[in-house]
Amino acid sequence: MKTECFFISDLHLALEKPAVTRKFLQFLQQEATQAQAIYILGDLFDTWVGDDDFFPPTRRIKKQLKQLISQGTQVFLQVGNRDFLLGQRFCTDTGVELLEDCAVIVLNGVKTLLMHGDLLCTDDLPYQAFRAKSHTQTWQQAVLSKPLLLRLMVARWYRLRSFFHKRGKTAEIMDVNQETVCAIMRQHQVKRLIHGHTHRPAVHSFQVDNEVIERIVLSEWHSQPFDLLGWSKEGYHFLKL
Predict the structure, then answer these.
(1) CATH number of 5-239
(2) Which of 46, 195, 221, 238 could form a disulfide with 226 if both were Cys (CB 3.0 to 4.6 A apart)?
(3) Per-domain residue ranges for the chain?
(4) How many CB atoms are located within 10 Å of the residue 59 CB?
(5) pTM of this structure
(6) Phi and psi at residue 192, in whole multiples of 5°?
(7) Cα(66)–Cα(171) distance, integer angstroms
(8) What is the rounded CA–CA span in Å between residue 125 and residue 147?
């Protein structure tokens, strides 16, 4: 009987990163088949310009996800700051279930909040302004109405611009805001938070309203100490594939 759950984020799959794609496909064919559920907490893809994108490695990823789900493993997905245009067509093609930006599940009896993590970085005001605009239906419809090749070209330009913008930001601005973390955990009445986005894998313990709270930050799949978080009845552990 499958009982373990895996949590991953920030794979940033792209044609230019074949090694990460190979590792993810191997994971879907091996370790993932023994899991009850896989939770992908954002940025599965480095760029996502619409569900009509058929360029590599999209087809192979979709095919392997569909096969995994057909074998009895549930796959849940949150969008991130790079693949937020991923929509219902992708889920229909694969069987993946799309989660809201804030999703609450129960792990070993403890209410746990799942997030990508970008909403927690409230000190990065320019990004939060762009996020608010880019998540509106009007903005997304305008983008998705453009030809696919044009969207791909614009996405590459945005990634280059983002790279240079990040170089001008401090590490603190791009990390989570602790007050925001506490507020959102109070809002959802949870004692545990799991997220990615910051690429700063760690386990943080702190107090909120005199209760011990846990925040687990997932790893990016590139030169990090671990690739995924596993959770069973015995508790959690980290794995390097």
Answers:
(1) 3.60.21.10
(2) 238
(3) 5-239
(4) 12
(5) 0.95
(6) -145, 140
(7) 38
(8) 31
